[in-house]
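Let's practice the habit of predicting before peeking. Look at the sequence and jot down your guess about where helices and strands might fall. Then scroll down.
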Amino acid sequence: MNQREDKEASPSLVFTETEQKVLDQFVMDSPSESRLFTLQYYLRRVAKLGGYLARKNDPPRRKIVIWRGFRKLNDLHAGFLAARQSAGN
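Done guessing? Here is the structure:
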């Protein structure tokens, strides 16, 4: 399934619950950005981690930006899990 085909796809198709929490904590929304928690919403957050600015007239996200975003998400996710484990939760 292509994320552009189904605008209301669930983020759980790609992201774990913990990854969604990490993205919610580390990527800030602009005031005008939709807060529908869909797959497309979280992919935009991953792109922002990779350097995408998400301005009104910016071109579509590129694969390299998504790849960099997923690498950063992986690092943040590992740190989140390590911190939670060391806290005893």
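How did you do? Residues 63-86 form the longest helix (24 residues).
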